[in-house]
Design goal:
alpha/beta, Rossmann fold, globular, binds flavin mononucleotide
């Protein structure tokens, strides 16, 4: 089983990062995992330039030669793709959105890149997550991936500091169980 984890937060050890770690621990209870873990903030991924060469070229390749090539090279054979991101100004972070835009090159062949994959959105937020969930639900009909989500609200009504998910044992457990469940589902 191949799993790709895309980490969209700039905060290492933050909420979405921690939940992704617990998801991975659950996933690893299944045998034979090939894991590709991408910290998008540390990668050189340029924004899509809208050149349309992925649409018009024969091989549908993206014209930009940067770290996105690492993700392209493993995406087709992935069974599980985790999109772990906080909400920033009403949507996924810029790091995640930049990566998503560059997925345009993979949109030319849904059968090869999207159909039947298990997509998991791990979303952390203070007020709102619906726009990012809405995106996945909107494109799901066309790309035919399976979709699960794990949500964590870090808002602390009593002070300026968010609640870190590490103090929420139930949420960590939920992440672990989701990983475990999907691992079993994919290998069986
Ligand atoms: C620049 C910035 C913008 C944010 N915008 C939103 C927002 O629009 N909606 C929301 O619910 N939370 C927003 N938040 C809160 C984060 O989503 C929240 O703190 C989240 O738990 C952080 O996740 P992380 O620890 O994985 O980075 C924002 C935080 C930052 C730093």
């Amino acid at each position: 089983m191949r799993a790709i984890v895309l980490r969209g937060s700039p905060r290492r050890g933050g909420n979405s990062d921690t939940l992704a770690d617990h998801f991975i621990q659950g996933l690893k209870t299944a045998d034979d995992i090939e894991l590709f873990d991408f910290i998008l903030n540390d990668m050189n991924i340029r924004p899509c330039q809208g050149c349309e060469s992925c649409a018009t070229s024969e091989n549908h390749k993206c014209a930009i030669d940067d770290d996105m090539q690492q993700i392209y090279s493993v995406f087709a054979d992935a069974d599980i793709v985790v999109w772990a991101t906080p909400m920033y100004w009403g949507y996924m972070t810029a790091q995640m959105k930049t990566t998503l835009d560059r997925m345009e090159a993979l949109a030319m062949d849904p059968e090869k890149y999207w159909v039947n994959k298990e997509f998991v959105a791990i979303l952390t937020y203070r007020h709102h997550y619906q726009s990012t969930i809405g995106f996945f639900e909107r494109v799901q009909d066309y790309f035919k991936f399976k979709f699960s989500s794990l949500l964590y609200c870090s808002k602390n009504e009593e002070g300026p500091e968010d609640f870190h998910v590490s103090s929420n044992k139930e949420k960590l457990e939920e992440a672990f169980i989701l990983g475990e469940r999907l691992g079993i589902k994919v290998i069986s």
